[in-house]
Design brief:
The chain is α+β, with helices and mostly antiparallel strands. It has a single domain, classed as Deoxyribonuclease I, Chain A, CATH 3.60.10. Helices cover 17% and strands 24% of the residues. It is built from 4 helices and 9 strands; from the N terminus they run H-E-E-H-E-H-E-E-E-E-E-H-E. Strand 8, helix 4 and strand 9 form a beta-alpha-beta unit. The radius of gyration is 17 Å and the shape is globular.
């Protein structure tokens, strides 16, 4: 599908100066509000490290995670990637630099479509479920191009549709390492799953992650 500018109803106020709501609604079928985490490497905004770099990107970034519960819903539109309008608005309104997504139900073709539709805003690093990419599992990292340089980013797939590892070079030569997990719903599969994550991590000789995101499908109380 050729790249094109998204329609007005997709971009909305993203290109204007109208303030966006800080909390996203969570109606039935849509994802819950995004949980954000400020990078604590440079918490003081008056510190020179947190000021814009010469290329316009900040050294201080905000990280967030979200279980999408699928790529579309009737409440957000009938299109195959309708929820991505919500994702893009959240990136802008909450000033998110890196967003980890789980349960994306996003095939490589649909990921390309979403990236082309919002090409000015984001880059998607996608890992779909190998058997049912549009109806099961799926994990992805979304990079806000207004906040971060997307050059030289490396994605390593540990388990297709379930576990990915992202390495992002930063200024002064340091690299930010992130892991995104969507664990199986069946608790009996967890031991094998985490063993495979560790096996693949070691096989690729990856460094320890600075942060781990995800939906681990685990609760403290069986009633939950």
């Amino acid at each position: 599908m050729p790249a094109e500018e998204p329609p007005d109803d997709a971009q909305g106020s993203l290109s204007g100066g109208t303030p966006e709501p800080q909390d996203l609604p969570a109606p039935q079928g849509d994802p819950p509000p995004i949980r954000t985490e400020q990078n604590t490497m440079n918490p003081d905004r008056t510190d020179p490290e947190s000021m814009p770099t010469p290329n316009g990107h900040r050294a201080n970034i905000r990280l967030a995670t979200l279980n999408m519960r699928g790529r579309s819903s009737q409440l957000s539109g009938t299109g195959p990637i309708s929820k991505w309008t919500v994702v893009v608005k959240a990136l802008r309104s909450q000033q998110i630099g890196i967003l980890a997504l789980q349960e994306t139900h996003l095939s490589d073709e649909l990921a390309t479509q979403a990236e082309q539709l919002f090409s000015r805003r984001l880059t998607i690093y996608n890992s779909p479920d190998p058997e049912n990419p549009t109806s099961s599992a799926g994990v992805a990292f979304v990079i806000n191009k207004e906040k971060l340089d997307t050059n030289n980013i490396t994605l390593t797939t540990l388990i297709l549709g379930r576990a990915i590892f992202l390495s992002i070079p930063r200024k002064h030569g340091d690299t930010l390492h992130l892991i995104n997990i969507y664990a199986p719903n069946d608790l009996s599969q967890h031991a094998c799953f985490w063993t495979e994550v560790e096996t693949q991590w070691s096989a690729h000789r990856l460094p320890p992650p600075n942060l781990m995101f995800g939906d681990f499908n685990m609760v403290e109380d069986p009633l939950d």
